What we know:
By secondary structure, the protein is mostly helical. It has three helices and no strands. Helix 1 (about 5-30) runs antiparallel to helix 2 (about 35-60) and helix 2 packs antiparallel against helix 3. The longest helix is centred in the first third of the chain and has 27 residues, at about 5-30. It starts with a helix and ends with a helix.
Amino acid sequence: MVPDTWISFLFAVASIAFTVGCLIYSTIKGGRISDRVGILLLMSLVMAVTGLGFGIHSFRLVEGDNNAKRMTVILSIVALVLLAVLFILR
Length: 90
């Protein structure tokens, strides 16, 4: 696979993991959380946008599997949608 695809995949998975981890932590604490969780969610947003950028850029490269490229873009979009839903429901 193309290195951009790997980077996009890692950023998308890390973004989803950070978001779900913050959601679980917030649920356990009953909503009384520190500012660190907000920073982690902001980092998750940056990773999702960066992963989407790398995923879109990987389509320009000829080598590599198109299914993997498509998967990384979809994972990045899922991470962004999850963050948008959490922002709307807060």
